[in-house]
Amino acid sequence: MGRFARVGAMVGALSLMASLALTGCGDDPKKAEFVGGTPTAGSSVAAESGTAPAVPAASAGPPLTVSPADGAKNRPVSAEISAEIPEGGKVTDIALTAANGGKVEGRWRADGSSWVPNSALKYGTRYTAVVTAAGEGGETRQGTSTFTTMAKPKSTIASGLYLFSDKTYGVGMPVVAEFHPGIPAKDRKAVQKRMFVRTDPPQPGAWHWVSNGTQAYYRAPEYWKSGTTITVRIALAGIPLSNGKYGNVDRSATAKIGRSFVMKVDNATKKMTVYEDGQVVRTIPVSLGKKSTPSSSGTMVVMEKKESTTFDTRDDPDPANRYVTEIDFAQRLTWGGEYIHAAPWSEHAQGRQNVSHGCVNVSTAHAKWLFSQTKVGDPITIKGTERKLTAGNGWTAWSLSWAEFVKGSALPVPEGGSGPDLA
């Protein structure tokens, strides 16, 4: 059982280092790739992008007050557009353009509180926002604001998104946002308001922050429905934090959820029961961690898969746990080094006795079959061992009940979960 340090290699040559002083049966550093890119543009209807036909500007009263204020300077590139609307009035159009004439697309927040550009604004650039609203009697009013964004900050916070566009994941795949250094507790509300998730078909969800603020998970009350499309935007570019740092970039991804494939391991029986779409498809004898190096009890998900790898634990402080072993059909469950993998040397004990260094040992034949069936994000629940899964040791979003999970949100969560943040 070896200590494990992980290094995340971000898209765009961004490096993110995080480590956990945890132990497991493997010590193979994980290179986590982070998704970045341009968010999907909203549609061109007024409620989403502000490109509806212009309303005649026959003003029937004083101009609307627009935010950011006219003449404002050094505004964050995460700025959103809003206006003070008379009672009974309704915004009919928002047009945001850069000084070079480039038009900015965007979407309304679901509660109508502001209009969110589809991508971060550019640093050191002048923008003009024109907001048009109609009153109850059909009269129109307009407000205009020209503001300038701040220069690119020198001190930023690194972020990552564990989700790849055009990939298919298991039903237990949480949305995982990562930050280095962690987000201070007093900033998490503002940051969470800029973390947008949309599911099709719609399913409620919530965010949960790991205690040190280095990760936040998003999940639904139950596993995702098979066939779900998840669209995510972690819109942190330029968002100011209380420690003087700013978010570095926006990250986005659109991914699919595949069929339901769920694994359940019971230490009492030393067996894994495998369910596909709710039906038992295989029962597999296992050997879990021995008492001195127990497996973790809780719900984990497959984080990565390697057909062959090397477990090297020669730096373990306990000489009894030092070894170098070639491993086949390895599927990572924790950052600390717990895997499902082939263990031909323990087949005599599988189904009868725990002899591993914390991993789920199965026969080579069963390991090969499992490897051919699973996807990243497929959940596995282990129960009855001497150790409880540690929050943040892997993608541990499902190790909590829904009632416990929502307590980790920085914002109030409606009963049953929140809907999409953007209209």
UniProtKB/TrEMBL annotation:
Pfam families: Big_10, YkuD. Residues 52-63 have a biased composition (Low complexity). Pathway: Cell wall biogenesis; peptidoglycan biosynthesis. Keywords: Acyltransferase, Cell shape, Cell wall biogenesis/degradation, Peptidoglycan synthesis, Signal, Transferase. The active site is at 341 (proton donor/acceptor), 359 (nucleophile). Residues 1-23 form the signal peptide. Residues 40-73 are annotated as: Disordered. InterPro entries: Big_10 (IPR041280), LD-transpeptidase (IPR050979), LD_TPept_cat_dom (IPR005490), Transpep_catalytic_dom (IPR038063). Residues 261-383 form the L,D-TPase catalytic domain. The keyword Acyltransferase applies. PANTHER family: L,D-TRANSPEPTIDASE, L,D-TRANSPEPTIDASE YCIB-RELATED. This is Ig-like domain-containing protein.
